[in-house]
């Protein structure tokens, strides 16, 4: 494969702006950052543009076509927080450079009847074929059961272990069975024996506290039921946790739609009718929620030095989570993070280097020699104007340029 040299573009390497540099790609890897154009290279003129690492959405649920849709928006990796794209099932995805790469928790540990069972209509079945052997459902009500499921999930290809800590109160289903601290702690302790990362779904402050006390590595939402306190911010900080706020979902849960995003011609051209309708709807399960409170919590977490990661909770079209679409909504999340008070560069780190570091994806998330050539070239400068991330000029996955 010939060398590719991307010239004339400003480079944001996932952590900082480097100025204008030439980036050389050799096969699926970044061969060099800076210097002259090697002889015989295919030259891509990046004048007037910014080269970013491929974006990472830290919270999704995959659907038919969603990985292709994500890649069209420059999202080169999605982290599936409940689903079937575990190692045993994703061999074709790994080798298909027309799709975003994916890592998955498999199915999350939850009690029988616990979240997300309340979201499933009677008789609901996914709109795609299940693997020949349906992955186990890790229903747990005791510490012993949770601990026993962890090695089974890891053996079946889960990349990290997820726990559902949710009594249903935010989604309008109060009284759901919920994992207690001892059960989560036992599962976390077992995961640590295997060196596995752990995450927890937590939408309330009390659930977040349970996750902190149980030793979970990160939470996949920011709590919505009340404003933050200095105490809970300090607990999260001192525990070394990361937080994936999913402000796009939080906004949708309060009744806000993604219509303004769907109206953007940069987005509309990449959505089919089902995703367009989904983006224009909302989840609206918690209309009493205050987006300003979520902003304030994210701002406090960032100020405290907590790693904030960019994720959306995008799922399937025309089913559960209105107001969200794979790929497009990660750009919306970046805009929400900036609205909450993060700088554009800080928001970009949340979708690149910080997420790669926290999820132990050492081969991506930055533009550096030897790493995967997952790249996004956009017109303008998103380090100063975050909306410029949607000005897609080119996308590469493992050095293969996505066809326009």
Rg from alpha-carbon coordinates: 20 Å
CATH topology of the largest domain: TIM Barrel
Order of the strands making up the biggest sheet: 3-2-7-16-17-18
The number of distinct structural domains comes to: 2
Q: Roughly what is the average pLDDT, rounded to an integer?
A: 94
Helix/strand structural class: alpha/beta
Largest sheet: 6 strands, mixed
Number of helices: 14
Distance from N terminus to C terminus (CA atoms, Å) equals 20 Å
Specify the CATH architecture of the largest domain: Alpha-Beta Barrel
Helix content: 25-40%
> What is the CATH top level name of the largest domain?
Alpha Beta
**Structural shape:** globular
Written description of the protein model:
By secondary structure, the protein is α/β, with parallel strands linked by helices. The protein folds into two domains: about 90 residues, Urease, subunit C, domain 1; about 300 residues, TIM Barrel. About 30% of the residues lie in helices and about 20% in strands. The chain contains 14 helices and 18 strands. The strands form four sheets. The protein has a six-stranded mixed sheet, with no helix packed on it. It has a five-stranded parallel sheet with strand order 11-12-13-14-15. A four-stranded mixed sheet has the order 5-4-1-6, with no helix packed on it. Helix 3 packs parallel to helix 4 and helix 4 packs across helix 5. About 5% of the residues have low confidence.
